[in-house]
Amino acid sequence: MVSSNAASIGFLPRADGSGSFVSGRTSIIASVTGPMEVRIRDEHPQKAHVEVIVRPAIGVTSTREKYLEARLLSALKPLILRSNHPRTLIQIVVQVVQTAGTDENASTTLLLLAPAMNAAVLALLDAAVPLKSVLAATTVAFMKGSGGVVVEPGLDELKNSASTHVLAFTSTGQLGFVESDGEFEYEDFERVVEAGRGVCSVEQKGHHAMDTEAKYHAVGELIRKIMSQKVEMDMRWRA
Amino acid sequence: MPKELEPSTCEKNFVLEALKENLRIDGRNFESFRELEISFGEDYGLADVQLGKTRVLARVSAEVSKPFSDRPFDGIFQITTELGPMASPAFETGRFTEQEVLLARLIEKAIRRSNAIDTESLCIVAGQKCWAVRVDVHFLHHDGGLIDASCIAAVAALQHYRRPDVSVDGEKVIIHTLTERVPVPLSILHIPICVTYSFYHGGEVSLVDATLQEEQLRDGDMTITLNKFGEVCQIAKAGGLPIGALALLQCARIALVKVQEITAFLQKRLEEDSAARTRRDNLLESTAQNAR
Amino acid sequence: MTTMLLFPGDVVPELPTPQKTNTALKVGPGLTYTPPDKVVAHRVGELHVDDRKCAVWMEGNGKRYIPSLNDAVIATVLRSTSDSYILAIPSSTSPAPASIQALLPHLAFPQATKKTRPILHPGCTVYARVSLANKHMDPELECYDAESQKAEGFGELKGGMVFNVSLGMARRLLGDGKKIRQLQLRARKAEGTEAEGGEISNGMEVLEELGRVLAFEIAVGRNGRVWVDSEDTKVTLCVGSCIQKSEYLTGDEQRALVREALRKL
After folding, report:
1. What is the rounded distance in angstroms from the CA atom of residue B157 to the CA atom of residue B44?
2. Has residue A212 got a pLDDT over 50?
3. Do C2-59 and C167-264 come out as alike in CATH topology?
4. What's the confidence (pLDDT) of residue C196?
5. C-chain residues near B6 (CB < 8 A)
6. Which of B5, B14, B17 lies closest to C95 in CB terms?
7. Arithmetic mean of pLDDT over chain C
8. What's a Pfam family this protein contains (chain B) (predicted)?
9. Which residues from A are below 8 Å from B138, CB to CB?
């Protein structure tokens, strides 16, 4: 299944930054506010406090949202130059709009992680929060039997996979985050990482990448495109 | 947590002064709503409502549950409205503010208590199985008019929603998946729409659909919920400036026009969405046939 | 002048070489200097290099204001303590939640003594200059010019209305667009392409055009707030809405917008 990715930014005028990311049927909205006043108990004399809040589409916050919050925080916290804004709070709110499946097992939760991370990164970029790098995330499934690698799997593919991996890469192509579910060999994991890196690369590769089938997958390219459009719009007065 | 900053003295004086001259900051008439936009998601029961800059998302879901023992023939219908920090950093998770309680109560009265949904139709097996329908309202952006926007979003999502079909065979209840049988819409008895008025200058000026800035400066407010047949579902006036009974009648009269406009617009958007769905389904079917 | 788009983590490829030996490289907003010779971007924006001044900076737009020295801001008085006023510096996100708090000493007005100091009530709007900006401390404000020690327009803003614009728009209204325009003109001269390309906007045609016909007072804060006052409520509203709508318009479009608005007025 070729899932199409779509993204947008800056649609919430009151938040400092906002980003949305749609991957297949999964749709996520994220907003960033800050640096702003922090609660005394969270105040850090040298660094900004980063908070991630995940809100489910249906029902109340459960362990699933707490798990997503913890994973997102561990990926995004090192990305932010926290020492630039000491004694402040940077709040990231992630709202799940639509999910691929309704059954709450580990793998469908994993499908939320990459789009949520991409939406949050877009919101951080939109809010101009100082960052060390750009992070682009994707989901890769390692199939049972055939041993094929599927990038951004759908629900059916997920059911037939031996393991599922969520990977995020920095703009220099370094692996910034991994979360895996299932059993796999190390060699298989290397193949998964290579497949993921190709999708997430933010490096400008000229025009050839956009002409191929790969454009549906290229998360890194998409983030770059959305952000350049924003800068172009901001600088439009000069034209 | 940071508090919402009150408008400064000069903003306050200017807004109130402008109202005396029949002017609103955004150039609207006193009796006009901001631009309304309604869109639906890929899933059934997902409505995205934009009222000016205010943006509200409503999501309907249903699961099979056991009916309350005192109401064995009724299904369960529930609306949750939680103000999250995405709408404004002044809203904190897990803490109920007065505003939130008022909002939740109002939406509850407007939709659930006015019997907009026929809960009896949600019953599957009396006293044992019924549908529990739930509306989750998410506030993405707060620029005033949260009550009006969330009411529109909730009724839009309810009308858009399709629940899986069920068949009862003796004691056995079979739930058919969406691909197996065409899902069924909820049985909706009427469509309540809220119109909120804000009062200024001792009730001389009344505004429809106030922005956040206007809401912060108002002397009093009142929400009237009507359906397109002109039936009043509820009137809420929680304190604030007292207004005359005649003014109330005038408000209700204007509100009816607004409600009819909004209902018609909602109907148009629903029809557009269902036409788009049919077109897409036909396309999928034909490509499937071609593949065969 | 060359412009290019940088992302967080991107290294500035070519730094300007100082023309005199004693001039230091100036690293502006959006960039972080890592010794000995690396300058890295930390947000998305256009890289601008000015060889003459030996400066690099990032041009971008945002909504959240971070105080910086000598910025003129529009702030609101929250309360008064024994020796200073506590002010909120709102950002352009309307109507700002989570504003920055700043101190305005009672004596930070021109020729103020304990007896002659101006009395500001909570809710007052003040046009002030940032006199202390440090990430580890609350910012401080002053209501006089640093050089002349005179008011120079700073102080309480009475009457009028405050409008929100983006931080980039506020900078343009204060004339930063002119600087970029000068750089562009210089670059064209260097390339010998003066004749081509046509006119370059300075980003504040809207103000020039409005000022030609209407009489109004205006104060622009770098925190994304614009204060406008005039005799007529309609004029104030017209000026405010024209400025807000000009955000993404080119010079010619701004002129057309103003003409249209004036016709309706």
Report:
1. 8
2. no
3. no
4. 58
5. 123
6. B5
7. 87
8. RNase_PH
9. 55, 57, 95
Residue range C3-28: mean pLDDT, rounded: 83
Residue A83 pLDDT level (bands cut at 50, 70, 90): very high
| Residue-wise pLDDT tens digits, C134-186 | 999 889 999 998 888 888 889 999 999 999 999 999 999 998 877 778 877 78
Contacts of B3 (CB under 8 A, 6+ apart): B90, C97
The minimal CB distance from A231 to the residues C46, C166, C250 is found for: C46
- For residue C65, what is the nearest residue in chain A, using CA coordinates? A35
pLDDT in tens, A22-62: 988 899 999 999 888 888 899 999 999 999 999 999 888 88
Domains of chain B listed by start with CATH number: 9-291 (3.30.230.70)
Tell me whether A40 touches chain B (CB under 8 Å).
Answer: no
- The helix (H) or strand (E) run that includes residue B236 is strand B232-236
**Region class of B79: left (phi > 0), else alpha (psi between -120 and 50), else beta:** beta
The verdict on a CB contact (< 8 Å) between A53 and B1 is no
Residue A154 CA, chain-centre distance (Å), reads 17
Domain ranges of chain C: 2-59, 72-158, 167-264
User: In the prediction, which pLDDT does A211 show?
Assistant: 39
Is there a contact between A81 and C93 if contact means CB atoms under 8 Å apart? no
Give me chain A's average pLDDT, please.
86
Residues contacting residue A185 through CB under 8 Å, at least 6 positions apart: none
Q: State whether A14 and C93 contact (CB < 8 Å).
A: yes
Cis amide bond preceding A35, omega within 30: yes
Q: How confident is the model at residue A208 (pLDDT cuts 50, 70, 90)?
A: very low
Judging contacts by C-beta atoms under 8 Å, the chain A residues touching residue C6 are: none
For the stretch B122-138, pLDDT in tens is: 999 999 999 999 999 99
pLDDT for residue C2 is more than 70: no
Nearest C-alpha neighbor of A69 from the set A77, A57, A58: A77
Q: By C-alpha distance, which of A9, A233, A6 is closest to A120? A: A9
Q: Which residue of C has its CA nearest to B213?
A: C95
pLDDT at B171: 81
C263 to chain A, any CB pair closer than 8 A? The answer is no
Q: How confident is the model at residue A109 (pLDDT cuts 50, 70, 90)?
A: confident
- Chain A contacts of B134, Cβ < 8 Å? 58-59
Q: Which numeric CATH code is attached to C167-264? A: 3.30.1370.10
CATH number at C72-158: 2.40.50.140
Q: Are residues B46 and A97, on separate chains, in Cβ contact within 8 Å?
A: yes
Report how many domains make up chain A.
1
Interval A4-30 mean pLDDT: 91
Q: Give all strands (DSSP E) within A12-84, no chain letters.
A: 17-23, 26-36, 49-55
Q: Which CATH code fits C2-59?
A: 2.40.50.100
- A128–C60 CB contact, under 8 Å: yes
Nearest chain A residue to C204 by CA: give it. A237
Name the nearest CA neighbour of A50 among A65, A20, A70: A70
Q: Which residues of B touch A60 (CB under 8 A)?
A: 80
Residue A137: give its domain's CATH number. 3.30.230.70
Q: Do C161 and B14 lie within an 8 Å CB cutoff?
A: yes
Model confidence at A71: pLDDT above 90: yes
**Domain assignment of residue A208, given as a range:** 5-238
- Cβ distance of B141 and A15 shorter than 8 Å: yes
All residues of chain B having their beta carbon less than 8 Å from the beta carbon of residue C88 are 5
